[in-house]
């Protein structure tokens, strides 16, 4: 008998060591690993990205800290800021003044550009696969390139009821209180502004992308969660498939593949299998009656499921084991959880706190500056344009007409669904000097090839940089070569450093350039890439600029180099 009791005690001791009680153990260790004075109250959720965190303060400042707690930079916007900050994969921060001015700040704290939105920001900006940004503006959404040029604007006629949710296909999901039919709507909007509309009788609490087919990465449907706990599937084909009902009132939801996690207002977390239509497990979180449903958010990745709110956070493994729980007192806004396992919380005492909750780091594919895009829109190699088979497409009048049509759409910010068509045509014109040398069609004049590159720069993205780099390398005419360099600089993104590498090949021996116009374009473009990207790419760019400012270069080039270097200090 004594042996049995002793053996049971050993077993209990073993399991308590392997699976410690998350609530008591974690809460006992819930001391910040660092804290930093903000000089003002934090407003909105911090944005954790590229091993750093950015936080908006009520004095109009955006402050950025390393994951170790060092202040990296402090940007002043010149006025009050809306309580939202988003960061791109490259570390660019997007914030907005309360007067409706959108501002892009690079990873070194330098302002890149600002544009007037016409109305205040109503939620965090969402970044697309190629760096484009989707901007929520109350009853509409606008899309801009990473360089700050508008591609399209979508009017809803009703206010957005929740933030923009990534749809798993490079677009986003919005919930509207009253759509075109006078009933609630869920709209799945792609990167070009095309919407797939789902009408509902009841305003949903959440709508998230899910996979129903054999390929778990297709995100071919939506899981819609209603206030009464019911869950249904909405397919692209317009089917509505009732799935299950969860006991309680949902506050937030998140998905991964064919699994759906839901946080409930009563403090429980639920994981559902959409394939089986069942609840797999239920766990207890930190959520209490103090938490507003609008302040509750969720994350779901290969590490597990995380529930965040103004008063704390909780983490679960995918099999339902609670990993940790933390309760936070005196927070000014909900926290952010980083890929490095740090929880960042802005306190009402003007202090930013960082809590180490996990040692695990997300396993994501990386580029030079941060996580690589999930996929591509295919705009670097789009299908042939509708003009590609037209015999007279290279005639001057035809070129003038088509380029004028595209430029007018660009100027009005209404490119929209025609973006792939326009980009394909501009590439065909701009690249005609390096393709099909034996063609019987008239050669396109240098003026139009350079003009096509100029217009392309207002539509371009990280996906079009390889094409522009090829044109720069292969084109023989210095005017077109310079136009390609100018376009790269206006786009401002060179995530893999291939454009800067092409410039270096032309400048450093055995390369040689004597054309002053081309040298000026390389200087301007290199400086633009440095401003957008920051280190480490900017370090190589500065070395290139210094080499272009030597005494053997034309005076105009040396003067431009000094001016550009001054802006980078």
UniProtKB/TrEMBL annotation:
<protein>
    <submittedName>
        <fullName>PQQ-binding-like beta-propeller repeat protein</fullName>
    </submittedName>
</protein>
<dbReference type="InterPro" id="IPR011989">
    <property type="entry name" value="ARM-like"/>
</dbReference>
<dbReference type="InterPro" id="IPR015943">
    <property type="entry name" value="WD40/YVTN_repeat-like_dom_sf"/>
</dbReference>
<feature type="signal peptide">
    <location>
        <begin position="1"/>
        <end position="25"/>
    </location>
</feature>
<dbReference type="InterPro" id="IPR016024">
    <property type="entry name" value="ARM-type_fold"/>
</dbReference>
<dbReference type="Pfam" id="PF13360">
    <property type="entry name" value="PQQ_2"/>
</dbReference>
<keyword id="KW-0732">Signal</keyword>
<dbReference type="InterPro" id="IPR002372">
    <property type="entry name" value="PQQ_rpt_dom"/>
</dbReference>
<dbReference type="InterPro" id="IPR011047">
    <property type="entry name" value="Quinoprotein_ADH-like_sf"/>
</dbReference>
<feature type="domain" description="Pyrrolo-quinoline quinone repeat">
    <location>
        <begin position="99"/>
        <end position="355"/>
    </location>
</feature>
């Amino acid at each position: 008998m004594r042996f049995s009791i002793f053996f049971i005690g050993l077993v209990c001791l073993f399991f308590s060591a392997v699976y410690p009680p998350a609530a008591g153990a974690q809460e006992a260790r819930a001391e910040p690993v660092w804290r930093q004075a903000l000089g003002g109250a934090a407003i909105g959720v911090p944005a954790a990205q590229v091993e750093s965190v950015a936080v908006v303060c009520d004095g109009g400042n955006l402050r950025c800290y390393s994951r170790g707690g060092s202040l990296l930079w402090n940007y002043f916007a010149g006025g009050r800021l809306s309580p939202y900050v988003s960061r791109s994969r490259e570390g660019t921060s997007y914030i907005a003044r309360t007067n409706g001015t959108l501002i892009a700040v690079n990873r070194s704290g330098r302002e890149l550009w600002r544009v007037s939105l016409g109305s205040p920001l109503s939620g965090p900006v969402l970044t697309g696969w190629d760096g484009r940004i989707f901007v929520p503006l109350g009853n509409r959404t606008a899309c801009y390139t990473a360089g700050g040029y508008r591609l399209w604007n979508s009017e809803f006629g009703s206010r957005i009821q929740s933030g923009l949710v990534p749809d798993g296909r490079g677009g986003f999901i919005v919930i509207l209180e009253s759509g075109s039919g006078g009933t609630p709507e869920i709209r799945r909007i792609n990167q070009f502004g095309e919407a797939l509309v789902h009408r509902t009788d009841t305003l949903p609490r959440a709508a998230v992308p899910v996979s129903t087919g054999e390929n778990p990465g297709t995100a071919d449907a939506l899981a819609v969660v209603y206030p009464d706990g019911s869950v249904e599937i909405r397919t692209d084909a317009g089917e509505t498939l009732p799935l299950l009902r969860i006991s309680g009132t949902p506050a937030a939801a998140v998905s991964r593949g064919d699994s759906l996690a839901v946080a409930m207002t009563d403090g429980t977390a639920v994981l559902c299998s959409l394939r089986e239509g069942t609840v797999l497990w239920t766990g207890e979180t930190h959520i209490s009656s103090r938490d507003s449903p609008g302040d509750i958010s969720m994350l779901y990745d290969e590490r597990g499921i995380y529930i965040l709110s103004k008063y704390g956070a909780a983490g679960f493994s995918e099999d339902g084991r609670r990993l940790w729980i933390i309760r936070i007192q005196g927070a000014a806004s909900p926290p952010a959880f980083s890929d490095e396992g740090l929880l960042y919380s802005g306190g009402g005492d003007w202090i930013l706190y960082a809590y180490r909750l996990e040692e695990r780091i997300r396993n994501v594919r990386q580029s030079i500056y941060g996580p690589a895009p999930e996929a591509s829109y295919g705009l670097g190699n789009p299908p042939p344009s509708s003009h590609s088979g037209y015999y007279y497409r290279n005639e001057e009048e035809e070129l003038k007409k088509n380029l004028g049509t595209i430029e007018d759409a660009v100027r009005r910010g209404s490119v929209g669904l025609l973006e792939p068509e326009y980009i394909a045509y501009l590439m065909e014109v701009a690249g005609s000097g390096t393709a099909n040398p034996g063609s019987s069609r008239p050669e396109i004049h240098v003026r139009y090839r350079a003009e096509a590159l100029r217009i392309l720069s207002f539509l371009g993205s990280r996906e079009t940089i390889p094409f522009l780099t090829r044109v720069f390398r292969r084109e023989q005419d210095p005017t077109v070569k310079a136009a390609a360099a100018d376009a790269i600089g206006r786009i401002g993104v060179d995530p893999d450093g291939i454009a800067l590498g092409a410039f270096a090949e032309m400048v450093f021996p055995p390369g040689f350039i004597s054309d002053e116009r081309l040298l000026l374009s390389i200087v301007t473009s290199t400086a633009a890439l440095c401003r957008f990207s920051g280190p480490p790419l900017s370090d190589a760019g500065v070395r290139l600029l210094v080499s272009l400012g030597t005494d053997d270069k034309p005076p105009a080039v040396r003067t431009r180099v000094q001016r550009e270097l001054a802006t980078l200090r």
